[in-house]
Amino acid sequence: MQYVLTEEQNAFREMIHRFLEVHSSSSRIRSASLTELGWDRDVWQQLCAEFEVPATCVPEAYGGHGFGLTELAILAEEMGRALYCGPFFGSTVLASLVISNGATDEMKKLLLPELVKGNKLAALAIAETCDRWRAADVTMVATDDGDHWRLNGEKLFVVDGLGADFLIVIARCAAKGEIGIFKVSSRDQSLSRLEMQGIDRTRRMSRVRFNNTQATKISRAGDVGDLVDDALDQATICLCAEMVGGAERLLESAIEYSKVRFQFGRPIGSFQALKHRAADLFVDIELAKAAARCAATAVDDGDENISELASIAKAAASEAYMSAALETVQFYGGIGFTWENDTHLWFRRAKSSEVFLGTADWHRERFIKQIAA
Amino acid sequence: MTETVSLATEQQVRDDVRDWIALNWNVKLSLSEWRELLADSGWGAPSWPARWYGKGLPATMNSIVEEEFFNAQVVGVTRKGANRLAAQTILAHGTDAHKKRFLRPMLTGAETWCQLFSEPGSGSDLAGAMTRAVRDGDRYIVNGQKVWTSMAHISDWGILLARTDMDVPKHQGLSFFLIDMRQPGIEVRPLRQMNGHASFNEVFFDNAVVNENDRLEDEGDGWRVATTTLLNERRNFDVASKKHTGFDRQEQIYVEEAEEIAVALAPHSWYPQREGRIDLLLPRAIERGKFGDAALRQEIARLFVLQRCREMASQRARAAIEAGGTPGPEGSVGKLAGARVSRECARVHTIISGADAMLDGVDSELNGTVAEIFLSTPANSLAGGTDEIQKNILAERVLGMPKEPRNDVDRPFKGVPKNAL
Ligand SMILES: Cc1cc2nc3c(=O)[nH]c(=O)nc-3n(C[C@H](O)[C@H](O)[C@H](O)COP(=O)(O)OP(=O)(O)OC[C@H]3O[C@@H](n4cnc5c(N)ncnc54)[C@H](O)[C@@H]3O)c2cc1C
């Protein structure tokens, strides 16, 4: 297992970091999050054109660069640090990973090159209730009317669903109840997409209703639930990387402030109470970071226990990010509780990520059951 | 023995209030007519001196009188703004002229007051206030900024802590003023919180003017006066248990009172959420079908235990204050426990919500209330003195641990390291 990033990986990270510092500054985030779409098309186009972000971990056979999840996680970490709002997580992480893991070769050839170039966006529709993010929990049924598959019902928390050109939908095939992966064009008239108002305005989600909507099955015959879950574990690992990036950014900002803010004739950072809070937080974040990084390289190494590692990382990251958010507000004092101060932008992301793709409780439960089995 | 005496007096006070109400309460009066009558009677502020709109009764009788008013559905004195705090401070430190000029409209609500203490540069370190008041003949010229000022946008007057001398140690260079808020040198801007509400204001002083006569105590004696205000703030906070929300009745006087209360409460509609809404944990867990989850039950039970302990601790503290003591540093126990309840409530509400915790506004459970809990609970670790400050108070004043060495009290304020203005 690779424990530290290579020189190339660090250079890659540095490049994206510098780009996002400018193009995903807090003022850009604030203005983008007020728009209907929720993100800036130009910035996304640049990420595609200059950095070929969506190509990162797609295999070369499908037009990608063939890097691993490690590289995708590096991107996620920087996106999270900068609180980048755009279709990266919805399309490049969630939808692309499900296609890469679960679609047939023919379908990958058809769909991935378009996503790689960035001229098409996809979104993943899987969750149907608020606590269920895995294939086994899916109840939506796809019926075969002879010519086409048809979908009915509702999917929730579809990340970046409003901007997507097509949706990747997880549903059960009518006859045998096997989990399949379906593709639906978002232009389809029978589809309705409604924005779900989120606490985090930098990650848009929607509620999608299917009404006898025509769908193409893109997975092979038989149940592909395991492949979908593999993809979700990989996405969870990327989410953890993103959370770690955000948490690090919060801690940096808290420490920076503690050096320049004076009370009682000294910088507040000189109070041991705050030093210990910062040190505790650093420990939490480093632990979560180690878990996220190792989980990503384990995927690239083809390890077996990915779901276990993903759960460890998510349980750790959920708590580390949320406490980073709370602590940073505390470091700033009253001003940290204001709208004008940027901390709440990350606070909202931390809250939202805490429960996205499975709460810490859910992951702990899954983890302990797996190792007890 | 003491018990019987106070019982007897209590009954006597109850009888007196009832008699007075029976003779004077008239639902047909306007709010201001009634309040004037009430202020002059002394029953509006029973613990104040008889000479100054009070009855000279012990503070313990306040709640007795309030109860009688409430039971008879009689409208009381105003509770808006910082009126009560300002009045308590003026009673302790004002001249007769101040009392004559200001106390009555504070009770009737004819004038609204705000408290101008916290500054962007001085929050935990209140005595580090940098708003300057420079003497100019028989008046002072005020420049600087205050923050977190409730009701400033509708206030007529403010109690102001400002620096009059940079060349003496920080606590000695402060003075305390009563400042007219309706003047061109004062600008009030709303301050928006991270939960989207704008409940407070920033107040900017640009050559604002305050008369020498409107200073309380001597120049340089402002910290002592401010200490009275802060002590009363804690006491009011500790003792005031139930909030008056008006009577749901149609007569004009009740409607007027309800309007006044609504204006005062509107910016603070999120305050219950800030406490964490422990009351919603059980119903939400049950409604969302999660009460069968033993781990969640433990979480909720743990919080209830904490909350009950906290209530009992605060009853003990309240009893000590009502028995005549001053609120001691023990108040910090309640404050810290409260902050802990808030934070833990947010955590357990998250467990109950699952992914629905991602939602806001109308999409969030209980029409946004749950999202508001998540975005409001950090306040309780900050407002009214941060957790760190409360812990320092407990460690140093209650537990008697050695004080932090300080470099800010033994030298002229101008030589103390601080943030640039
Ligand atoms: C919702 C809300 C309502 C408020 N309402 C009012 C109000 O009605 N009236 C009013 O006057 N003010 C009000 N305030 C202001 C509040 O009292 C201050 O925010 C608070 O006292 C902290 O001061 P500060 O913001 O300047 O932070 P700072 O004092 O700068 O504190 C920053 C950080 O440094 C820490 N710190 C500071 N000193 C020490 C120390 N000695 N040891 C260890 N750590 C330390 C703090 O704990 C904090 O973590 C309100 C604030 C909020 C958030």
UniProtKB/TrEMBL annotation, chain A:
<feature type="domain" description="Acyl-CoA dehydrogenase/oxidase N-terminal">
    <location>
        <begin position="6"/>
        <end position="118"/>
    </location>
</feature>
<dbReference type="InterPro" id="IPR037069">
    <property type="entry name" value="AcylCoA_DH/ox_N_sf"/>
</dbReference>
<dbReference type="InterPro" id="IPR046373">
    <property type="entry name" value="Acyl-CoA_Oxase/DH_mid-dom_sf"/>
</dbReference>
<dbReference type="InterPro" id="IPR036250">
    <property type="entry name" value="AcylCo_DH-like_C"/>
</dbReference>
<feature type="domain" description="Acyl-CoA dehydrogenase/oxidase C-terminal">
    <location>
        <begin position="230"/>
        <end position="370"/>
    </location>
</feature>
<dbReference type="Pfam" id="PF00441">
    <property type="entry name" value="Acyl-CoA_dh_1"/>
</dbReference>
<dbReference type="InterPro" id="IPR009075">
    <property type="entry name" value="AcylCo_DH/oxidase_C"/>
</dbReference>
<protein>
    <submittedName>
        <fullName>Acyl-CoA dehydrogenase family protein</fullName>
    </submittedName>
</protein>
<keyword id="KW-0285">Flavoprotein</keyword>
<comment type="similarity">
    <text>Belongs to the acyl-CoA dehydrogenase family.</text>
</comment>
<dbReference type="InterPro" id="IPR009100">
    <property type="entry name" value="AcylCoA_DH/oxidase_NM_dom_sf"/>
</dbReference>
<dbReference type="InterPro" id="IPR013786">
    <property type="entry name" value="AcylCoA_DH/ox_N"/>
</dbReference>
<keyword id="KW-0274">FAD</keyword>
<keyword id="KW-0560">Oxidoreductase</keyword>
<dbReference type="Pfam" id="PF02771">
    <property type="entry name" value="Acyl-CoA_dh_N"/>
</dbReference>
UniProtKB/TrEMBL annotation, chain B:
<dbReference type="Pfam" id="PF02770">
    <property type="entry name" value="Acyl-CoA_dh_M"/>
</dbReference>
<dbReference type="InterPro" id="IPR006091">
    <property type="entry name" value="Acyl-CoA_Oxase/DH_mid-dom"/>
</dbReference>
<feature type="domain" description="Acyl-CoA dehydrogenase/oxidase C-terminal">
    <location>
        <begin position="280"/>
        <end position="399"/>
    </location>
</feature>
<dbReference type="InterPro" id="IPR009100">
    <property type="entry name" value="AcylCoA_DH/oxidase_NM_dom_sf"/>
</dbReference>
<keyword id="KW-0274">FAD</keyword>
<dbReference type="Pfam" id="PF02771">
    <property type="entry name" value="Acyl-CoA_dh_N"/>
</dbReference>
<dbReference type="InterPro" id="IPR009075">
    <property type="entry name" value="AcylCo_DH/oxidase_C"/>
</dbReference>
<protein>
    <submittedName>
        <fullName>Acyl-CoA dehydrogenase family protein</fullName>
    </submittedName>
</protein>
<dbReference type="InterPro" id="IPR013786">
    <property type="entry name" value="AcylCoA_DH/ox_N"/>
</dbReference>
<dbReference type="InterPro" id="IPR036250">
    <property type="entry name" value="AcylCo_DH-like_C"/>
</dbReference>
<keyword id="KW-0285">Flavoprotein</keyword>
<feature type="domain" description="Acyl-CoA oxidase/dehydrogenase middle">
    <location>
        <begin position="114"/>
        <end position="207"/>
    </location>
</feature>
<dbReference type="InterPro" id="IPR046373">
    <property type="entry name" value="Acyl-CoA_Oxase/DH_mid-dom_sf"/>
</dbReference>
<keyword id="KW-0560">Oxidoreductase</keyword>
<feature type="domain" description="Acyl-CoA dehydrogenase/oxidase N-terminal">
    <location>
        <begin position="4"/>
        <end position="109"/>
    </location>
</feature>
<comment type="similarity">
    <text>Belongs to the acyl-CoA dehydrogenase family.</text>
</comment>
<dbReference type="InterPro" id="IPR052161">
    <property type="entry name" value="Mycobact_Acyl-CoA_DH"/>
</dbReference>
<dbReference type="Pfam" id="PF00441">
    <property type="entry name" value="Acyl-CoA_dh_1"/>
</dbReference>
<dbReference type="InterPro" id="IPR037069">
    <property type="entry name" value="AcylCoA_DH/ox_N_sf"/>
</dbReference>
